[in-house]
Amino acid sequence: MKLYALSGDPAKPCYVLSYKGLMIMLDCGLSISSVLNFLPLPLVQSPKFQCLPNWNCRDSEIQLEDGEIKECCGCAFVNSAPEFVPPLEKLIDFSEIDVILISNYTNMLALPYITEGTGFCGEVYATEPTLQIGRFFLEELVEYIEASPKESTARMWKEIQHQLPMPLNDVFKPKNWRHLFSMDAVNKSLARVRMTGYDQKLDIFGALQVTPISSGFCLGSSNWTIVSGQEKISYISGSSTLTTHPRPINQTALKYSDVVIMTGLTQAPHVNPDAMLGELCMNVMMTLRNGGSVLIPCYPSGVVYDLFECLSVSLDNQGFTQIPMFFISPVADSSLAYSNILAEWLSTSKQNKVYIPDEPFPHASLVKNAKLKHFKHIDSEGFSTEFRQPCVVFCGHPSLRFGDAVHFVELWGSNPLHTIIFTEPDFPHMQALAPYQPLAIKTVYCPIETSLNFQQANKLIKELKPGVLVIPENYTQPPAIAPQKLDLVIDPIPDKMIIKFKRGEVIKLPLKRKRGRVYLNPKMAKTICPQEVQPGVTVSTVTGVLQVKDNIHDLLPLEPTKEELADEHKSKPAGPPQPYSQLRTVRYEWGTLDINLLLKKLAQDGFTDLKVEQGSADEVTLLLPSEDTVIKVSEKSTDIVCGGKQSLRLKLRDLLLQCVQSF
């Protein structure tokens, strides 16, 4: 078994598991942090960004396109359409992927890069909320980029990266970055997804059985178990033991796995999400008391549902019942409507509201009472009429590089009465604000991340008792945001192996197949006559044909040839027919192959150009150049590679069988 690491960001994982001849992709996360190196895309031309000075290379021989690189407060930005970091392509051919397992909607944004234009013809599995909310994320992202197209594309800067100022001279392999896909590619890729439910066992070509298990992180999020015979692998990505709106994590199904691959831990391990939620509400109330408004850059689903609920209660308690909240997103109406019809994917307390009946989320009543107003864009019909200040605005994108958030930062950035609160930990907030500087608006960083922290992850690992733990290398050292906190790591497990990996590596996992399941044909079962060899132990020889089809092993009765039936009829014309196993002499081969005897028999049969290569201690390779054939002999297997010559392969097989012991 091998693991290919196609992503360097544990929060946006993409790995490929090679097992039993199958290539299984685990998630297809898209790293969006690269967009921070680009100038924002305003909805209308911005005098501020147009007036930023150009950066020019000191080397007169290097000529960049006019305005390709802009400078702002000591930082350089690319003046072009933003580019993204897709999963690593050179490590594996995407057309060879057999199946993609998606754990949650935040880890599927690279799907169009993988399935479209690559020859991919495998299966994609995800839960219904993962598919639908993932569609919201992708549609919003594409609409944001297409709403503000750039006239030209900057390319030359990647050729002189080492000469550029900070932070561009420090970015990782920008030549691998790609522009965003089209809406057509999004629709085609999502059409490939097959929806599944929690605990539904899915057969993968007869070789494996995969099952999505509730992970407790977000609506429809799942961990996956991969079972083959006696072996079990668990993939844990984006899990939570906190009590929020999704269905709780199912730990029982993950216990006693041979291998556990764990990723998607919190990006803000140094803070408590409940404390951050309280701090957010406090800062919102302070800003409103001073007559200012609040901007909260957000995604169209997820934590924003909890923010609506908590913030509406705080506004009522503090006497701000008339303060409006605005939710602005191209998919705002779809997201709000869809979240209230997902009862089976919610926590028990949310499910119980459905049977009262009542909406599981309060934002439905907030919309009815005009406390929460939602619009597709700031130029949507009715927005200018409804908009009034002070207010609280939720809109995208959290990177502040595109979307309606760009307009509000420019609108409110020079006023110290207003506040911008960052809740998404995907982007360092100071880097997000860098191209807008200087700013007077108050900035608050309240990352609300509900996925497992290191303390919770270590506790979960102890309870699951895995045979081998596989984790990103980042989890073995304190995070960059808190390098002094040595407890923010995955602890060693006594008497257990921990394997770490990083982007671009191929890791061999110590999982060996112990047993395989073979289905015995009923006719053969009737002929078995067990013999007791010692008290409580009976054995029997079995002779048949092992048929392997779609990774299912069937042991079938031997069928006689026409010639053998004719010979039997001539020698014994009368009497009832006998089982075929009694009609012919059956040889049972066993033991190790006698190499010297094989070489002698090959020479006697006319293979005179034979070459012998000694590999490792128990491996020998025999080359037959004239026949374009290779025979590889090891302690546990013998392989004949002869370019499709079936008659030659059978001839060599018969010679091989003469060189082992038999009875």
TrEMBL record:
Q: What is this protein called?
A: Beta-Casp domain-containing protein
What's in the GO CC field?
A: cytoplasm; integrator complex
Keyword Lipoprotein set for record: no
Q: Where in the cell is it found?
A: Cytoplasm; Nucleus
What taxonomic lineage is listed for the species of origin? Eukaryota, Metazoa, Ecdysozoa, Arthropoda, Hexapoda
UniProt keyword annotation of Nucleus present:
yes
- Supply the alphabetized keyword list: Cytoplasm, Nucleus
GO BP, sorted A to Z = snRNA 3'-end processing
Supply the Gene3D superfamilies for this chain: 3.40.50.10890, Ribonuclease Z/Hydroxyacylglutathione hydrolase-like (3.60.15.10)
A Pfam family hit: Lactamase_B_6
Question: Which family is it part of?
Answer: Belongs to the metallo-beta-lactamase superfamily. RNA-metabolizing metallo-beta-lactamase-like family. INTS9 subfamily.
Q: Where does it primarily localize? A: cytoplasm
Membrane spanning stretches: none
